[in-house]
## 1
Amino acid sequence: MTTSIRRVKTSDLELKDRLVAINRVTKVTKGGRTFSFSAIVVVGNEDGIVGYGLGKANEVTTAIAKGVEDAKKNLIKVPVSKGTVPHEQLAKFGGAEVFIKPASHGTGVKAGGAMRAVLESAGVTDVLAKSKGSSNPHNLVKATIAALLEMRDAYTVAQQRGVNLEKVFKG
């Protein structure tokens, strides 16, 4: 199944950023060790728009700022209905595998670490999520974004099938 990427323009959006992970990288030269930092950041407006970015720099604050700028260039639209996702979804990226399932109102975000940051930034308030395989934050974020990209709401399904909205639920 091919997925269309739903890009979003960043103008007049109020985005909140969340730092998922920071990694210190060491380069050994003949003059000694040189440290630099890589940061993975998730941004979202908590209303269906989310994106992630990677920033690398010699200082932590600069790496985070670069990550935020990169994340603003990679925003996607996620179908969130009544605070949860429309249906179950399984997605893989690298060694990370994620399973996202809708939950009833009041459940909260039952997800760990990197997945929680992505889901909360997207505006999901009630969801059950499980991470299988690798716990690498980079791959978990990318797998979660891939799962959210494959989500389709009832209106989109009806449009793709060329039928009425009521027929989607009967059928």
## 2
Amino acid sequence: MKKPSNVAVKSRTKKLIATAIATLVVIAVFTSTVFADSFGKYNVTIVDGGAKTTIATTAKEPIEVLKTAGITLASDDKMDITAFAGGEGGTIVIKRLNTVNVKFDGKVQTYDVYAPTVGEAIKEIGLTVTDETATNYKFSDLVKDGMVIEIKDAPSVTLTIGNESVKYAKTSGTVRELVELAGEKLTKYDYTEPALDTNLKAGMTVKLFKVVYLTETRNEKIKFKTVEKEDSELDEGKTEVITEGKNGSKDVTYEVKYVNGKATKKTALKEVVKSKATAEVVKVGTKPVVLMPNTSSSSTSAKSSKSSKTSKKSSSSVKPNGVKSYNGVSVGQVIEGSYTRYCMCAQCCGVETGVTASGKRVYYNMPDPHYVALNWLPMGSVIKLNGIEYTVVDRGGGGLSSVGKVDVFTPEGHAACFRLGCGACTIEIVRIGW
């Protein structure tokens, strides 16, 4: 058998060594790659809405870590990274924004919360509850978007805005915190009773006054004035209109204060006259009028010293109503009395309203309506005073309670009352009541 040469043996040996070296290089490269990859990863714990998970990652930025875990954030969600360090590990907490509805005292209020559990959500809202507070959820239950949390029994305070009142299961903090809980944004004009820094107490009622100032322009009339001209040819007490009065108009701009939607005050800022008013010109008679007592016969004159007497009923256009007598006075009876005068001013009436006790309206310088005030006949009664018919539409002081005492309404005003004067008169009862 022929032995191999030394050259051949050496060649084979070199090939085996080369193959072994190549294999070792491949193993070394693979091992170093695996170790390098494993060395670059670190663990991160993610808490998402109460759910906890841990991942291994090489990402350094928190948002990249979440992407690695397949977690995305909504625009209103929050991420807490105070316990996280990129490349080292830690915990990332995701706070999801959810809408919860709280039902209390039959009314539902809606709130946005980030708390993960019902108990924490109630505290975040600012309500006062204890472990004994009855709710339809456990405090440890996770929050779900749109859920209705019903609080059945809890101390409360009431917030009133205008005519609307709502109870809140809150007894801690201040009035300001209660207003914020209700979602009311205060302006510098708004105010509360009690004040905003007052501490809340169970059973308290807080009133919120929302104040708004608005500028408004309104068209208003300009009342015409009355100009009097004395006329010596016209009987005293009579008036005639020469020129009819006409109201004008103006645009008035006001600053109006509204409190809880109701106008409480207005301040005029400017006026723009659109049309001027035309004055009414009235003739006022100054010709003296002598009123003669109403006598029916010589026998009546002989009894003039008596306070009352009967006579034949004089003619009248007043329709009878069937009432024959009242308070000892009869239809057709003639009474010797006395009269005074009054006008619609505050000095005569205590307050100037332009409305009589019967509801009849009066105004200065109106055509004489022939009204009287007295207390001894019913409203609507008609009397003849020195031959002129007057209707009872008003009342007066105690002095007008005596039969025969009459106060004559004088539309020309207070000065005319003094000018025309008062005195004795003859009164005939024409009708009793309306």
## 3
Amino acid sequence: MAEEKVKEESFVNKGVSFFWKYLLGGIIPTAILTFILLIIGANVSTFIISEPFGRFMTEDHPTLSTGLSYMGSIGVWVVILIIYLILRNRREYLKKILNRFNKKTAICLLVGLVIGVGLNLICAFAAMLNKDISLYFNDFNVLSCIFLLISVFVQASSEELLCRGFMYRRIETFYNQPIVPIIANSAFFAVLHGLNPGVTIVSLMNIFLTGILFSCLYYYTDSISLCFTGHTGWNFCQSIILGLPNSGVVVPYSFMKLDAANARNSLFYNCAFGVEGTVFSVIILGLACVVVIVLGRKGIIRKAR
């Protein structure tokens, strides 16, 4: 009886220890802090973008409206950079984010862009081959392309900075196992998209896997730049080049336009959420995660220090 009681108490103590260490110790407080930073960043963005340029965010200015809507995440950059400047023990992360441009940085930026665009094109082409969607040419000019690429980079990199940069790094300081910050920040990333138009369980799974993919790339390469352009490539290809819904949101301006009236739901396309709301996308992103993990464990993907 005494031994059973000791075992029971030991089991309870381990459960309590797990709860405090893995939840209250780092994950939940970091998630709350990250969400607070997101809210503060949104308010800063309102002051920087919405108030002075709000008159251009109309149907009369589709290119400006599209670009400014993506620029609406710039407040996250401002807030996190200020925090890293204030906290001396976090200035090392600031140096990694703003590392001087060199050959390795250029390679990481290019590789990330190729990964993001490539994965999105695979999903989009599958939907087109299955005749779920058809596209037609809308408009293109070089200045619009450059402006919108920068705008999408601001939006995508701010999410990466928040989730893979700040949240990942902070949770990492509490736990030795890399799987903890990888899973935690990816789950938070998915939750952030929980109120997007047309969201489903499948689309949330896709966004979660996207978080896993970028987190693994960050872990194995130690390059946030690769995550910046990987996310940018996916969003830019999907919404600006192809004119498809980006996590349920269709922007006013794109090079191609979707024939929405004849689009249909299938394993390859979701009319409300786009290619990100499909089983096929889950498979592609899942395979991409496996490839990165295998290459990382074999040392083929090396630290980009």
## 4
Amino acid sequence: MKETHEDGPRQVDLAVARLDPWSVMKMTFLLSFALGIILIFASVILWMLLNGMQVFSSIRNFMDTIDGGGGGMNILVDLMRLPRVLGITTVIAVCNCLLLTAFATVSAFLYNVAASLVGGIRLTLIDE
């Protein structure tokens, strides 16, 4: 650690030699869980905006025009209902939460291995 004592602020050179994988896992899980909740709320708001602008009814009318009223294209329209959209968004949010947590934890382990070989990331901090 190198310290300089001058008239200005104190400057310290440090190295991040190790990341605690358990702390990284907890923090990443918390942040990805919050991101999942934001994703679900954003999809509900977007669905409500599109429904309010009559986009889904326009798509249904267009599909009925193409299909001739036979009902074969209604499968696509059924996918755009709010419960289905919420279900798909929830599955995506849970998968995102699990994958981000696992990826960050494995990355912390890999960083620890690499830091033991090369010494880690050097930081210069200034005390003002």
